[in-house]
Amino acid sequence: MAVWPVVDDTVALDDLLAEARSDVRDVAWRHGFELVAAGSPVLREGRTVAGSGGAEFVVTVSAFVRARTTELGVPA
Fold first, then answer.
1. Is 72 part of any domain?
2. Which end of the chain is more exposed for a tag (fewer CB within 10 A), N or C?
3. Is 41 contained in some domain?
């Protein structure tokens, strides 16, 4: 699951969800994964989500990913 803390409460909900939807592939890539499929972004209370960093609210996206490399650094 990818997590985006909501740090600006003046941004419209539709914009927050759109940002997460467009960013999830890049987040997976930065962490060494390739995005296979992603669910819809959801606004949630931060206290209920690991990785919220103490934010009151977060946007989450559940995703299926696969490793881009093996443990030895060989492409998967």
1. no
2. C
3. yes
Q: How many domains does the chain have?
A: 1
Assigned domain for 49 exists: yes
Q: Which domain holds residue 52?
A: 2-67
Environment class of 73 (CB within 10 Å of its CB; exposed 0-12, middle 13-18, buried 19+): exposed
DSSP for 4-66, written as a single string: EE---TTS-HHHHHHHHHHHHHHHHHHTTEEEEEE---EEEEGGGSTT-TT-SEEEEE-EEEE
Per-residue pLDDT tens, the chain, 76 aa: give them.
999 999 999 999 999 999 999 999 999 999 989 999 999 999 999 999 999 999 999 999 999 999 987 666 666 6
User: pTM, whole model, 2 decimals?
Assistant: 0.84
